[in-house]
Description:
Radius of gyration: 21 Å
Shape: elongated
Mean pLDDT: 96
Number of strands: 9
CATH class of the largest domain: Alpha Beta
Oligomer: single chain
Distance between the termini: 59 Å
Structural class: alpha/beta
Amino acid sequence: MLRDETLNLLNKHGLKVDAALDEQQLVDPEDIKSLIEASGLEPSDTVLEIGPGAGNITVELAARANKVVAIEKNPKFTSLLRERLLGFSNVEIVEGDAMSIRLPHFDVLVSNLPYSIAEATLQRLTWAKFKTASLIVSSTFASILTAVQGTSKYSKLTYEIGLFFVVAKTIEVRAETFYPEPKVSTAIVVIKSKQFKKPSEAVLTALLRQVDKKTINALREALISSATHGYPPTKNGARNIIAKLALPEGILEKRVARLSLADLQLLSERLDHLTG
């Protein structure tokens, strides 16, 4: 059984795993299969895995993909991973923090994500070009990502992620399929890049990538970068658009990261009205 194999590997390398530190390992072959198949992985794909841990998912990815890049932050897993994957020439193990290092090119992301970095991972993905991501996250986080506007779970994060991606929850993952068992319920979510339906979405996504800038400056740059969607390609033209939006001064002076859901929705409405 995979559970026994995992325990033996951990014991051999003198490793203990702690669910409180997001170190739970997926030890059910059927759930690993469901996670990988949800991604639509093809034999020609390069697949990225964040947090491979003991490598249970990595081994299956290596058997199915053209190349696997596994990024592991915790050095205690490195020797186990290298030993276990020694027979695979298509696996690259990268020691580092996936939240700070430069991500390699990949077609598909498949990961049993540490819960503590789930939101940060999605924020990083807004900069990446890929086909699909299949991730295990907490059920609470999954419900936020897939919430419908007007419901209690709908939030600024729901709105922002919905600008960049189409997100769907597939199945709940039972606690007993992990070792050790997590203290929260989990689910598989599938994330796909989306095509802009409205010019305003191009502006808003460009705006949200400039988290540390003042909104007035970030919005000007976002409008210029969205010239192919009908916005002016010059600073003066962008300034004129901003003036026509007649946004409250309080919004324009905020840092982008501090914009509220209501602020973003107002900006979207004004942009749509202007181009409608």
